[in-house]
Amino acid sequence: MIARRLFTEYYRNLAADTVELCDGVNVICGENGQGKTNLLEALCLFTGVRSFRGAKNPELIQKGQSFARLKLDFFAGQRDQSAELVITDKKQATLNGVKLTAATGFIGTFCAVVFSPDNMGMIKGGSGERRKFLDAAISQHYPAYPRLLVEYNRILAQRNAFLKKSASTRGFEDMLDIWDENLSKTGAKISCKRAQYVSQLCGKTEEIFDGISSGRERISIRYTCGYLTEDSVTETAAALKSQLEAHRASDLAQGCTNYGAHRDDLAIAVNGLSAKQYASQGQKRSCVLALKLAEASVLEQAIGERPVAVLDDVMSELDGLRQDYLMNRMEGWQVLISCCDPHTVKGLSDGRVIEVREGRFTTR
Ligand SMILES: Nc1ncnc2c1ncn2[C@@H]1O[C@H](COP(=O)(O)OP(=O)(O)O)[C@@H](O)[C@H]1O
Ligand SMILES: [Mg+2]
Q1: Contact 52, 136 (CB under 8 A)
Q2: Closest C-alpha among 244, 231, 230, 229 to residue 155
Q3: What is the model's pLDDT at position 167?
Q4: What is the pLDDT of residue 166?
Q5: Residue 249's domain is classified under what CATH number?
Q6: Phi/psi at 151 (nearest 5 deg)?
Q7: 233 and 127 co-located in one domain
Q8: Which residues share a beta bridge with 165?
Q9: Measured from the CA of 313, which atom of ligand 1 is nearest?
Q10: Is any atom of ligand 1 closer than 6 Å to the C-beta of 36?
Q11: What pLDDT is recorded for position 185?
């Protein structure tokens, strides 16, 4: 997958301009607030998912204008393709001259994996952030998975509401049995899918982290779930159901469900120590990068093409060797990497430097 050229018009602060990208490493360089992230964000809209900044359509349009237009020429599926997005209060998407019903129609055609500083929550934040990462990654492989999550959350909310209100009603235990049964069945499907995905992710994460840290450190990741049984959905469901039954009294006392897929986690350690508690800022960043790039590698196996790596503001806090890995040793990847420090660029041995100033691009 190669993004060849991106045309922008009335997109945030970007000038009406075309940026030509090279197949290897493209360093987008400029001071704060010049438009580096805006450029990366624009490119990533062609993956068909919403802005990685979580921005709504009107925010993407240049102040004072009524629309924004983006065009991307890219190489995928062994041919040159082109896509266009016109953003008003909605997004109109066109792929190779054919109008799509929605921008989500791009999903699977142009793929990119994004690192943004917001992703640091995967290490620094609570288990919910890590489950969100896994769930988003799995959803790209199994279109039915998001529905499973919606279903699970619905059952969980109903069980919790029931625990809070209904302890005194007749037939309470029987009703709770039904919630437990439903929650266990759906929860087991989710936990098994996540565990299976983590086992695919594991080796690749270790390999990439080894590269980023130049073999100086080891990462280990493990899916933690108190009832997972040998990847068998039926047995896992039975184990979760017994846990729910065994802890019914405390669930009732607290008015919430203490066991289930909403409590699972991804344990991440560097050299055997929990990354959240012990790793340095640079090591934490390396963990997130390794996980993100591993996610891209798993996707590559499934779709037969390597996604573009988009790395926003990743360089700060990384030592020279780690920066060198991202700029010079990611063979076979097309990389877009933004940075503020002009000294960083000096370490680039091959590739393209694109300077951004007040929304205008200069390539050197
Ligand atoms: N809709 C918009 N219209 C005009 N300017 C915008 C819009 N959205 C963001 N900007 C401007 O873009 C700049 C931020 O660009 P950004 O790409 O985040 O900077 P950086 O180069 O630091 O990554 C800010 O000056 C901001 O005011
Ligand atoms: Mg930025």
Answers
A1: no
A2: 244
A3: 67
A4: 72
A5: 1.20.1050.90
A6: -60, -45
A7: yes
A8: none
A9: 23
A10: yes
A11: 98
What does the pLDDT look like over 155-214, one tens digit per residue? 999 999 989 887 677 778 888 999 999 999 999 999 999 999 999 999 999 999 999 999
What's the gap in Å between 114 CA and the centre of ligand 2? 13
Which residues are bridge partners to 94 per DSSP?
Answer: 84, 99
30 CA to centre of ligand 2 in angstroms: 9
Question: Both tokens of residue 198?
Answer: 């983590």
Find out whether the beta carbon of 40 lies less than 6 Å from any atom of ligand 1: no
Q: Whose CA is nearest to atom 11 of ligand 1?
A: 13
> What per-residue confidence (pLDDT) applies to 346?
86
**Nearest alpha-carbon partner for 3 in 112, 113, 116:** 112
Structural domain contains residue 291:
no
Ligand 2 center to residue 186 CA distance, Å? Answer: 39
Helix (H) / strand (E) element for 113: namely strand 112-115
Q: Does the beta carbon of 35 lie inside 6 Å of ligand 1?
A: yes
Find the domain containing 159 and state its range: 122-277
Pull the structure tokens for residue 245.
């039954």
Cα of first residue to Cα of last residue in the chain, in angstroms, is 23
pLDDT digits (tens, 9 = 90+) for 63-119: 999 999 999 999 999 999 999 999 999 999 999 999 999 998 998 899 999 999 999
Give φ, ψ of 218 to 5 degrees: -125, 135
Pairing of strands 335-339, 308-311: parallel
Whether 311 and 239 map to the same domain: the answer is no
Does pLDDT of 329 surpass 70? Answer: yes
Q: Looking at the structure, tell me whether residues 138 and 225 fall in a common domain.
A: yes
Instruction: Name the residue of 8, 14, 38, 338 whose CB sits within 8 Å of the most ligand 1 atoms, as the mutation to test its pocket.
Output: 38
Question: Which residue's CA is minimally distant from atom 9 of ligand 1?
Answer: 12
Residues 85 and 151 in one domain: no
Atom of ligand 1 nearest to the CA of 30: 21
**Please, what is the average pLDDT of the chain?**
94
